[in-house]
Amino acid sequence: MDQPAFSVKLLGSWADSHTHRVQLALKLKGLEFEYQEEDFINPSPALLLHNPVYKKVPALLHGGRSIVESVVILQYIDETWTDNPIMPADPFERAVTRFWCHFTDDKLAPAVGLVFSSSGEGQKAAVDQVHENLKLLERELKDGAFKGRRFFGGDKIGLLDIVLGCGSYWLAVFEEVMEVKLIDPESFPVFHAWLRDFEEQQEVKETIPAIDRLLEYARGIRQMMLSLSNSSSSSINNAAASSG
Amino acid sequence: MAAEEGEVRLIGAWPSPFVLRPRVALNLKWVEYEFLQEKFGEKSELLLRSNPVYKKIPVLLHHDKPVCESMIIVEYVDGAWANSGHAILPADTYERALHRFWAFYIDDKWFPSMFGIAKAETEEAKAESAEQAWAGLKLLEEAFEKLSKGKAFFGGDTIGYVDIALGSYLGWAKVIERMTGLKLFDEEKTPLLAVWAGRFCAHEAVKEVMPETEKLME
Known about the structure:
heterodimer; A: alpha+beta; Glutaredoxin; Glutathione S-transferase Yfyf (Class Pi), Chain A, domain 2; 2 domains; 4-stranded mixed sheet; B: alpha+beta; 9 helices; globular; Glutathione S-transferase (chain B); transferase (chain B); EC 2.5.1.18 (chain B); GST_C_Tau (chain B)
């Protein structure tokens, strides 16, 4: 396998699913790369230089070029190092793959995020939304575009597996932290089976952080969010009391 | 290239910038297609069946197989008719990444700021959206300089992916300019894009399908 003529460097964050997508793709392609951990809250000068528009991880640096936005990066990797393709060859299949990647980031991921950041009625609505979205994926796996496949990419992990898989681990984490049911194996048997299979793959195990770390991280953020909303409502009460 | 009867159909509506995108792509590739105009305020059975997830236009039907999402359709057209017309995405993988990034940015950040000008209920909100839209165009001006390499379009000599992504909004940009008196594609702020805008609209793959400002204003 050819190693890159220029070195490859990835700016990422350890708990960021978009970073994991790129790490996994590089691993699947057998590419060596340097990794630099970025602080979500304080982007380094390097990150600001290489992603001035969004100032976010991940950013892939290759031969003096910066590529950002995870799905753009994944396609860049696939098109630059053409062994072990992660995209299908057929234009229609590619369109289907891209569509469900768009769906993942446009619908599923925000709904999952909302489960985490909301409570009460808002959270219940978000949970319902996640279920609706998973139903659509379940249907495609069972009877639709991906019927009969082991992975979305076929026999091997493809780009859509990477995009969906790196992020779906939050479902189990949020289930535990938020005490909600998100990915019930009885309601979503095919999706559930795919996710288990995906997470068992060697390259995936090497990429996704241990669930304990993710749980601790999620609990920490949830605590912080709850205490922030408590303190802001109490300061509102104080302000109302002093002006009343 | 003449398509067989019913081979290529596009479900859409003439005012939509998103529908304009695949139309320009198909024109660039000389593909004949049937345009299925949706009735205003109603979604056809065919649309609901072809795009059950989003229920939105445009949808390209090629041999009855649906392709959804405007820029995904553009990339599909580029691949399915690779041997016809000019390439819409460049050959170089880094340039392809840049085209995909800026198309994403245009829909993710720039379009909402432009639309924000139209939706704004106060002068302040309007001014703020306008500032954001101009700031975005400044970024796109730099991107144009880098990608065009002195040529006419983001795609170089020919219309490319980012040209389609941004150019599709020009009809609505003109409406907003008329309604507000603000100049979005300003010769002083973004000189290259101001010239590019006229060039894009005049292109033979675009001019028949770009909605007229007067019609949009109705």
